[in-house]
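Quick question, first post here. What does this chain look like in 3D?
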Amino acid sequence: MSAATEILGRLVPVRPWMTAVDGQSLRADAMAGLTGATIVLPQGIAFAVIAGLPPEYGLFTAMIVPLVAAIWGSSMIMVSGPTTAISAVLFATLAPLAPVGTPEYVTLALVLTLLVGAMQLAAGLSGLGEVIAFISHSVIVGFTGAAAVLIFVSQLGPALGLGASEGSVLPRLLALADRRDMIEPAAMLIAAVTLGTILLMTRLDKRLPAYILALLAGSVAGALLDAAGRGVAHFAPLGAVSPSFAVPQLQADSLAALLPGAAAVAFVGLLEAISIGKSFAVARKERFDSNQEIVGQGMSNLVGSFFQCYAGSGSFTRSGLNADSGAKTPLSAILAAGFLLLMLWLVSPLVARVPVPAVSAIILYVALKLIDHREIRHIVTTSRSETVILLVTFVTGVVSELDFAILAGVVASLVVFLSQSARPLVAVGAPAGVGGRRVFLNAHHYGLPQCPQISMTRLEGPLFFGSIDHVERRFRQLDAQDGDKTRIFNLRGVGRIDMSGGQFVLDEVRRARAQGHDLHLIAKHPDILRTLERLHCGDVLGPDHIHGTKAAAIDAAVAAAQDDICARCRLRVFHECARKPGAPADESGPQTAGLTP
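> Answer (accepted):
Ran it through. Tokens below.
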């Protein structure tokens, strides 16, 4: 298939899942869509508040983005739309550029969404899905934790009737401390009632529309307390119920300021979508195409920017609810968008009666739920390097900016990867009987006898410029431990060799032969063999020193071993030793005695 044909196939809005729709799946998807619309109605308002946008923009994003992503994406169950993490990054990016909630701020949000969609679409059509998925999962865990802390702290002020504050976590906390004498008891009580209702509803039955009931309880509490008369802020009426088409107002002077934030949002969105899509595909035994999903996310944000949507991505909460509600195909997300529009026509007049502390309480709950304590505990207890990545990302996000936290986490991931790649496994093997078979095990780890003349050394990992120092250091350590010997260098576990790796092999050949020993290579993969040929390793080694199997390499090395040493050896490590002088007539395998005097 040509590249142009593949790209065209990814852009065509006719997807394989559409043929799976029937009467049964339609009914299941309709019920799941109705449930999803009920949940996303208050969520859309809350996420828009996090992003610093009027509530309707969160609702528009919950309509258009999942609809487009469902058509062009790859996941059968994932639901896209506004998310807390992306809302937080968008706010952190735009707040320094324009007053929050102003028309200028909204314009920048739509332009940023357009840039995000273009970046993601280009990434999907370029086949970068595997590269993006390569970034450590700990980056997302650390970033999400930092975003949760920032979101939580940002909503403490509105929940206490103090209004919003600016800056990162510490400046916001200091601002709250300075204004602690101005806390409004009515606002605090409304937030407490709302939060308590969510906790109660989720404990009673997770299928209940906890967010809507909590908003209703908070609004009733506000009315009973005469919150408006006490100065407690309420939401303005929705500017519109349905999105309208408008071209984002691109301005050259704002593009440079938006590009770093757009890259961070695009990156976070793709990591969220790919990780969520893969997890559900594995659980449901369904196929998942990372590149197609990236195309779907890019198309949803690109199209959404023309319909008053801000950047969205896959939502684990709504996707999980979609699966639990019995959804069969992406049609459930499309139907949810339609149901949400119908609901808005009914409830939009009531939005102006919702106190801001009630929504802030919902956001506080969402922020607390964002922190995945189980996953953090798993990372901390199983991997030191992943723990470092998590901490670097989290701490950077808390003390600095969220978009910079992503960069710090990605850099930390690459450093860890390069560090691990630069330290491949170098070990000496020896044969041992296991389950009636002769296998090679780590000689030092299992205390196995080694041939006094031949060292079976294997490498697991790349032999490239970054790993040469480590491999050479390990070779010298093994020489000091076991003595200089003819080395059989097993390259079967080597992914690639570059010019520095080829030069290392040549240096080892010359070093071994200068000391009266030799070097044999085990290499079978065509790419490795071509690389060795291109680097002229065969010219120095000789074609009879490059072997396709361990047996061939051992046979050649044992045949060239010094007979006088073999005659006194009682180890007989290799079966091939039976052909050497001094071997007992009935020898059948490796022995355990040493050299005779």
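The radius of gyration is 32 Å.
The first helix runs from residue 3 to 11.
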